[in-house]
Amino acid sequence: MDMFDWFVLARGAPCVGVCALALAAAPANAVSVAQGSTVAFASDDSAYDALMVQSIEAAGHTAVAITEFATFDFSQVDMLWFEDDSNTAFSPTFAGRQDDIEAYVRAGGRLMIHDRSTTAAVSENYFLGAPTIEAINFTPLTPGEEINRPIADAGSNPVTDGPFGTITDTTLDNALRSVHGAVTRESLLTVNATAILTTDDPNEVVAFSYALDDGFLYYANMPVLFNATNTAGLPQREAFRDIYLPNAIDYVVNIPTPSSLVLLALLAGASRRRRS
What we know:
This protein is of the alpha/beta class. It is 31% helix and 19% strand. It contains nine helices and eleven strands. Strand 10 and strand 11 form a beta hairpin. The protein is globular, with a radius of gyration of 18 Å. The two termini are 28 Å apart. The model is unreliable at 1-34 (pLDDT under 50).
């Protein structure tokens, strides 16, 4: 049962396509989420800061720049967005706070990571609390690697069909470097993860999400900020910037946490008992 199955369970009714949900009050020790949430951001390349602010604000949230990553209090924000700008190495910035970030997510935080590593062992450092997820990377890189929505998943998801536009099987294709790696779909089953984007092979999942205790992690192996700023004259630049990024941010901020879904399921059950 993945996060969308939990969503249906909490609603107590079938869900077709993208369904809206008003979140119940979260436990006191969890990070609350809503429209207008605070999203902290950091990257190994400050040249992308302006685009990250633009993307967060486009999604309707407040951007918080992390100037001192080594000491930042993640619990003060609803979501953390981190961009790794290296093709070969695990970000030392992220590595220095990896345990703290995992604790933040487990307590109810939301984490979105865009990686661009071409080495599987490096990418797997980002799969917090999920060592069974298996990365596969593409070397040498081929310009224009394809990105498709999950062929084997029924219906849509809020990233491919979100409030800021639709991502089809060709929307993100043929950028300078659309995708640098993926994970095996089979390994995602071990953590009940949800596939969001794939290559043209449905078993190669480029973007996915999974719950970690009371929090939530979204990961994609795509040089998103590079493609959103360095493909001048190509339609993919606007697609990465104006559709994918705000859709992904909105999805991560608003996905129900496990605790809120359990509470909603209990409330739905109590409501049905009162009517019977």
